[in-house]
Amino acid sequence: MPRTSISTTVPTAAISAQTDFRQCTICVLDTRDDPNMRFDDDGFCHYYQEYLDTAAKHLPSPETREAELERQIQQIKGDGKGRDYDCIVGVSGGVDSTYVAWLAKQHGLRTLCVHFDNGWNSELAVENIHSIVSKLDFDLFTYVVDWEEFRDVQLAFIKASVVDIELVTDHAIFATLYRQAGKHDIRHILSGTNVMTETTLPPHWIHHKTDHVNIKAIHKRFGTRPMKTYPLMDWKVKKVLQMHKGLQALSILNYVPYNKAEVKQRIIDELGWRDYGGKHYESIFTRFYQGHILPTKFGIDKRKAHLSDLIFAGQITKEDALAELAQPIYDPAQERIDREFALKKLGLTEAEFVNIMKQQPKSHYDFPTERPLLETYPILKPLRWPISLVRRVLSS
Question: Could you say which DSSP state residue 20 is in?
Answer without folding.
Answer: -
